[in-house]
Batch of 2 targets.
Target 1
Amino acid sequence: MQNSPRPPQPQQPLPLDGITVVAVEQAVSAPFATRQLADLGARVIKVERPDGGDFARGYDTAAAGLASHFVWANRGKESLAVDLKDPRGLAAVRALIAEADVFVQNLAQGAAARLGLDAASLCAEHPRLVAVDISGYGAGGPYADKRAYDMLVQCEAGLVSVTGTPEQPVKAGIPAADIAAAMYAFSGVLAALLRRSTTGLGGPVEVSMLEALAEWMGHPLHHAMHGGEPPVRTGLAHAVIAPYDAYATADGARVLLSVQNDREWRRLAEMVLERPELADDPAYATNAARTAHRAATDELVAKALGRLDVDTALARLEKAGIACARLRDVTEVAEHPQLAARGRWREVGSPVGSLRALLPPVTLPGGADPAMGAVPALGEHTGALLRAVGMSDAEIAALRRDGVVA
């Protein structure tokens, strides 16, 4: 007897539908954290300075006249442009926080506390509120008041020491410290909301860029702490595996490949290098031997791949069961066939029209699509938000006249 087909299940709502977030945020760490919340259905109210707003708005004009950082980290938010140093502006933001579920801030160390907007103070006033303080180095300790730009924290956390070539350390090409802090703030909010669902209480969440990135340094950090040598910088090569590097092809592209064991080396020698005798050559037959003769090993691979165009090289490596990848630049990633085949691109609104954006990497099958709302203009929602906390049009006009809001 055949089982009857299951009836279609109702679509699940976005998991943060009904959650309101107020964020006094700038740059990357807090905005990227709250953008994740917005994509999952939260209403995110972004509080910005009236005189230019989040300074990330001015980083560049690459996204059709808008700043690429800002477009990436701020879709789906409502912009309230208000001067928090004016008591009227601060009172309006406090009124919004009183009705919110989550508050996030990444102001310079001490600035939020001077305004009474630090997590501890707000949670004491509003026990159900989840309030997040994102800082560079944490609230205490000798580095608490140090400036904490992404590259500086990459240096302090040791990331730069393991990135680059033997001759030259380099920073990561993305704001790794900001992103690390953002993702721990995001997951911290989700954890605190889950706890609130059982206890009824929110509470403070603290995240520092240094501590977030130090956690990401797990393998080299633990290797060095527990008796090993600090890892050497090897560029695209691997410190203890050979061949494992990027090699040029005849058409000017580069292919990265990784031989993980001696069986794979045999297949590479036979099917790609077309030198089957190398499989049993004592100078190359084991990974230890290949690593000891790294320059000669790399020369063999480079010579073979240098005769092939990139598509042919990749096809041969795939047929031989060798892990490989095309070394792409960012413009090529924007046209990546895998992202296209999986339908990962969407259009989001902005003050300059539609812009391409990637779907969030967390997929929830059976649920509503991620919100992916528009990138806001500075102060686009100021009037509506102030009216929502009880201000009259005359009062709002007076604030605009005085430069308190924009």
Note: The first helix runs from residue 29 to 39.
Target 2
Amino acid sequence: MPAICLCYEVHEPYQLRRYTVFDMGQNSIYEDDDHNCDAMLRAARLCYLPANELMLKLIRRYDGAFRASYAISGTALDLFEQYVPEVLDSFVALARTGCVEFVAETAPHSLAFLYSRQEFDRQVKAQLARLKALFGCKPVTFKNTECVYNNDLAAAVAELGFKAVLAEGTDHVLGWRSANYLYQPISAPGLSMLLRNTNLSGDLGMRFSDTAWPAWPLRAETFASWCHGLAESAEVINIINDYHILGLRHSKESGIFDFMEALPEALLARKDFHFTTPGMAIQAFRTMGEMDVPQFMSWDEESGDLTAWLGNDMQKDAIHALYAMSSRVALSGAPDLQHDFDRLQTADHFRHMSTKWFSSESPDRPSPFGSPYDAYITFMNVLADFEMRLKAVEELQAAPAPDTPAQTKNPAGQSRKAQTKATEKTSGKKKTGAKAEGSAAEKKSAATRSKTGTTA
């Protein structure tokens, strides 16, 4: 029975404000609160609230036969709580249906695995704890930022206790094989690997509202027929996309909501098809072989590599400078520095520096800067101020603590307070002895005077 696995990435970044050299050392307000607020209100109105309402309606309409999964970043959760708590409430409502699986990722939607395993582990564990607190679930599936994946990541994910990992089904990795089966990473026996169907995912994610596309306008029945055509050569069809496709990348006027509402009925028209989640899929299907991915890959539409985030010298310089401070931030133990350090790791900051995407950036995730060079200069200015704050904390921690009277010790190890008491006690003994000696002398003098008959 072929299964359809719908998975959505839910991510929102905190955008930086135009931070200049004149701000360095004067203030450490890095983020553009007005921009972030406006962006979240717009995203909630056009995407999150109507999309979640639709998903809840479909789950109820099909009595649990419709299912979906979400990989929500920690920054998205922060922004929901800060500006649109009703969006968070709508995800909680979806969680209560029992038909939604939450997939884990790094909390700040970072590329930490490429530079710091310690940071990566810390961020994943933090996100696991938060998903547990918010939705009462313990994720068994992991999706790395932008589906960045290789053999080493699979091994790390298995060590963290996950049962499945999501990755891109690129042709150069698959070769003659199909993405529509479960695989096992060569570096992590026991871990299941679900691969994104790039063609079907791209049809919804990138081409749906393209009027020059031969299949435009795409109908639910047409898309379902493409899926049905894979029935003899597929077990699980993974359609993984950015949640922005619902209302932001493709507007309501494009018909995307009507399409999604009609899709379950069209797919379930064939009784051998059903909806699943990654966690359910790994229990229902067996792996079909090992997958060897020695080089990093991603879901970048053009090249499937990391060049969208690390393709030029500006991006590499910025991210190397950032992670060079990783261990220092951890040792500082300063919560405010750790908070800002996490936010600066968000992958969007480096994407805004990409010259590759300068002329073809996704309309639903525009850069707040005029050019990649402006993005780089702003980020490095912020990083310079951040390092000044880090150095100040380090210098404060390195400075010797001032001595207090109760803590100062003499060479023998005795405290100054104890030494003072001993001196007073000794001094008191000397005074008592002098007084006794004086009294004896007076008595002797009096006796002499008595014998001689003289007077004082």
Note: Strands lie at 3-10, 68-72, 100-103, 141-143, 164-168, 184-185, 192-196, 236-242, 274-276, 290-291.
